[in-house]
Amino acid sequence: MTDHALAAELAEGAGAILLGVREELGFADPRALKDTGDLRAHEYLMAELARRRPDDAILSEEGRASVADKRAAGAGAGADAAPTANTDAAVRLAAHRVWIIDPLDGTREFSEEGRSDWAVHVALWENGRLAAGAVALPAQGKTLRTGPDGAIVTENTGTETPLRVSEPAPGRLRIAVSRTRPPEFVQRLAEAIRPDVDLVPIGSAGAKISAVLLGEVDAYVHAGGQYEWDSAAPAAVALDAGAHASRVDGAGLAYNQKDPRLPDILVCHPVSASTLLTGIRDVSDALPS
Ligand SMILES: Nc1ncnc2c1ncn2[C@@H]1O[C@H](COP(=O)(O)O)[C@@H](OP(=O)(O)O)[C@H]1O
Ligand SMILES: [Mg+2]
Fold first, then answer.
1. What is the DSSP string of 33-55?
2. Residues that bind Mg(2+), according to the entry (predicted)?
């Protein structure tokens, strides 16, 4: 099986587990729902990757030592089991192949009944670049993934469609922003650039980047904090779908770094990139430090 297909299979497998956790626990205790979802999706992905790609390193949001410490301290329900730890950092940094995974992105939205803006991210970094990636949107019945012939979107009905980012309509730009932490500078950016801007609040970095690739919005702009796992898989799919994906200063997105913080990102159609990058530069005094 190709790495593309494996990424999609695992993201969908974790997605099915997460839908089951929602069914099983309901929405009365959001903390328990989030913790159980994070842990079960993480354990499934760690076990499957260890079994099917035993020589590869893994960096998971939930496999960090800090998460284990928090759970060991008994933070919230579902905290009894310590999560399987990530590959040791020194080993990961020397590895040629590293899976970068976010078992549940948009954790808050996952815990809110009726919301479908949450995702599972499975990416493969290989020799300095993103080599494969899949973003499952379980509550939307869709998976966006890389492929040998370019990105595709699969529906749970079984249909597969090529995925190409589309050009925005002239004069108007819909920019996806965080629902709960919209960076202030994006409002300034909206006022500074020529096209009329609509800010569209959506949860989850993966769901926002998917919305760009599916033509539901035209761009995703974020700054002020995020980690490699929040963007690796969606950026892999975005690049494969012909989108522009970079830091907000235009620099490339670098993964498998010593420090997994990757605090800002811009994803859009290439025709919008210079307008947005110039606009962001013009309001850079408002960028979070
Ligand atoms: N300022 C910040 N610092 C750290 N992480 C942030 C962040 N803003 C957003 N994120 C992370 O990026 C993901 C998408 O956020 P949002 O829905 O607000 O756009 C979330 O991942 P998780 O849900 O995996 O924790 C969230 O934790
Ligand atoms: Mg995340």
1. HHHHHHHHHHHHHHHHHHHHSTT
2. 61, 102, 104-105, 230
